[in-house]
Amino acid sequence: MEPIIAVNNLVKRYKKADKPAVGGISFEVKQGEFFAFLGPNGAGKTTTISILTTTLSKTEGQVTIAGYDIEREAAEVRRNVGIIFQNPSLDLDLTAEENIRLHVSIYGIYGYRPLYRMMPAEYRQRIHELAEVVGLQDQLFKKVKGFSGGMKRKLEIMRSLMHNPRILFLDEPTQGLDASARQSIWTYLKQLRKEQKITVFLTTHYLEEAEEADRVCMVTGGKISALGTPDEIKRQLAGPGMMVLASDDIETLKNELTLLNAPFVEEPGGLRITCWEGQAQKIVAGLKSPLTKLDIRQPTLEEAYLSLVTGKGGVSA
């Protein structure tokens, strides 16, 4: 199957810059995939996503979105993508519906009408469907200036989905939101992926949001430093996990671990064992001693990321 996003040797150079913002990166994204694009500030993330969504020109390389070339067929690309950038772009003096009506007219999805009731029935049905899904049905005709940060983000998601895009680009979609609003946004996005098989391309500084990605691409200095599933990235960059065991009969537990070829270090809280993913379950299954403590600590994507950007890896106790 042809990838829905194909990037080949993409380069972006800004005038008077010492080095390229994007230095020849290549990757592909499959239809329906949740793809996380991560990296520190200045790594080239926003530049890349801006090129992929046709809002910035490239210097070199080839990029196709849904089979369309981003330069020769930019209009077709825009018809297939929805975009939520990190900086909100809503008119606070308009209602939620008016913001969406203006957006769909500018992008040629529906012709502009001065009143909601004059818009096509298809538009009115679509906007109510999306408002109900994201929980904005009661705020649809209220001015955006009274909305919370989470409500504004939901409105932007609604707006980006009005034309049923095949790909949703999310550039820091939950930045500045509280934990409850972030959870609400992701609950809806998971539902969207499940029901519509939409491809999600995410950049975020909240690394836990990328834990459920199908694949993760980490970039530093405009180049790809790691690419794979979250588990592959964690194994490559963060190293093994850690397990701490304790028992009332600590000597018997030590003997059992020795027989299981599970090296341990004795510490005040129990016996600490370094283990790769999947090993912890095998070790625990092979024990007969009743345990008074079992603490399993696997590496996180955030630890892998920090290992990449700082050179300090490993699971912390």
TrEMBL record:
Alphabetic keyword roster: ATP-binding, Nucleotide-binding, Transport
Protein's UniProt keywords contain Transport: yes
Lineage: Bacteria, Bacillati, Bacillota, Bacilli, Bacillales
Molecular function GO terms recorded: ATP binding; ATP hydrolysis activity
Family label: Belongs to the ABC transporter superfamily.
Listed SUPFAM superfamilies: P-loop containing nucleoside triphosphate hydrolases
Protein name: ABC transporter ATP-binding protein
Classification via PROSITE patterns: ABC_TRANSPORTER_2
Pfam families xrefs: ABC_tran
ATP-binding found in the keyword field: yes
Domain ABC transporter: 5-246
Alphabetical list of InterPro entries matching this protein: AAA+_ATPase (IPR003593), ABC_transporter-like_ATP-bd (IPR003439), ABC_transporter_ATP-binding (IPR050763), P-loop_NTPase (IPR027417)
